[in-house]
């Protein structure tokens, strides 16, 4: 699908001595995704083995370091029973290297990580917080209600109440998302210097956050879309979001609010093909196959698009 000139996102130009973010990929496990849950009219046997990517974010020039997402946890038994059933029946996964192990391999002790931003509270992004004993966790305020109604308080929930240490969790209020940038009407300028924006990524799950980061002082950007889409073809417009009707007549969608999710996908689509802008989804198997084991993973970094 082509994007008209009017639909192309315009991101702000860099300022003098512009701060930016060095972005490095982190291994977070591999998950099997049945495409019929995500892509309209996908064949029942179409599956993809995808990464659950996390990211190291280093602010330049301050050196402040953050982690975005924690991928999958190795011990399936620590997930809620609903998730254990999903993992066993529909979405088997492996964790050859966890996020904390990826950080160690890249020269960063998990005990030295000060801030972890969680995109949302689904099981393939929360990882295991146990290694990050000194980190403050940052999630959107909308995640609070999900935690309060999570497992084990609600035995049928797929949200694990202990997935973040509440005593070290900062909930970003709705009022923090007071910046408009490019196609996104609600964003939070994390450092206040235009280097890192947390984007209110509506539709997928309450509190879903994406990251828009400058990757150079010359005007380069990367958009980390988390679960905005589970297949790049949804971003390009080649495919549509799936809605499944079960035998009992109940409808199911990978997104809590399909209409909002489709609108957010449309906004992200306007970034595709924009000069100096990269777009990367958490489960982008094609990107992963091109780059696994390479210099885009810590201690290397994803090069700024020039």
TrEMBL record:
Protein name: Metallo-beta-lactamase domain-containing protein
Similarity-based family: Belongs to the metallo-beta-lactamase superfamily.
Cofactor(s) the record lists: Zn(2+)
Cross-referenced PANTHER family: 102 KBASES UNSTABLE REGION: FROM 1 TO 119443, QUORUM-QUENCHING LACTONASE YTNP-RELATED-RELATED
Keyword Hydrolase: yes
Residue stretches making up the Metallo-beta-lactamase domain: 95-142
Keyword terms, alphabetized: Hydrolase, Metal-binding, Zinc
GO molecular function ontology, one term from the record: metal ion binding
InterPro entries: MBL_superfamily_lactonases (IPR051013), Metallo-B-lactamas (IPR001279), RibonucZ/Hydroxyglut_hydro (IPR036866)
């Amino acid at each position: 699908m082509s994007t008209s000139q009017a639909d192309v996102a315009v991101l702000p130009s860099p300022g003098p001595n512009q701060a930016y973010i060095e972005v490095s990929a982190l291994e977070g496990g591999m998950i099997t995704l049945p495409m019929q849950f995500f892509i309209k009219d996908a064949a029942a046997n179409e599956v993809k083995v995808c990464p659950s990517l996390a990211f190291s974010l280093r602010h330049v020039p301050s050196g402040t370091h953050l982690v975005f997402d924690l991928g999958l946890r190795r011990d399936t038994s620590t997930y809620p029973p609903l998730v254990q059933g999903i993992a066993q029946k529909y979405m088997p996964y492996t964790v050859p290297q966890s996020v904390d192990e990826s950080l160690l391999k890249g020269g960063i002790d998990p005990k030295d990580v000060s801030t972890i931003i969680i995109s949302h509270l689904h099981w393939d992004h929360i990882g295991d917080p146990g290694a990050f004993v000194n980190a403050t966790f940052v999630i959107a305020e909308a995640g609070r209600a999900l935690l309060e109604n999570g497992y084990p308080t609600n035995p049928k929930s797929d949200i694990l109440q202990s997935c973040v240490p509440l005593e070290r969790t900062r909930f970003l209020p709705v009022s923090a998302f007071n910046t408009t940038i490019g196609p996104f009407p609600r964003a939070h300028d994390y450092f206040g210097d235009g280097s890192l924006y947390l984007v209110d990524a509506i539709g997928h799950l309450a509190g879903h956050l994406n990251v828009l980061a400058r990757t150079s002082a010359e005007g380069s950007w990367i958009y980390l879309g988390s679960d905005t889409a589970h297949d790049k073809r949804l971003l390009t417009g080649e495919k549509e979001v799936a809605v499944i009707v079960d035998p009992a007549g109940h409808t199911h969608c990978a997104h809590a609010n399909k209409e909002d999710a489709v609108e957010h996908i449309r906004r992200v689509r306007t970034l595709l093909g924009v000069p100096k802008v990269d777009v990367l989804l958490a489960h982008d198997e094609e990107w992963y196959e091109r780059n696994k084991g390479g210099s885009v993973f810590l201690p290397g970094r994803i090069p700024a698009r020039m």
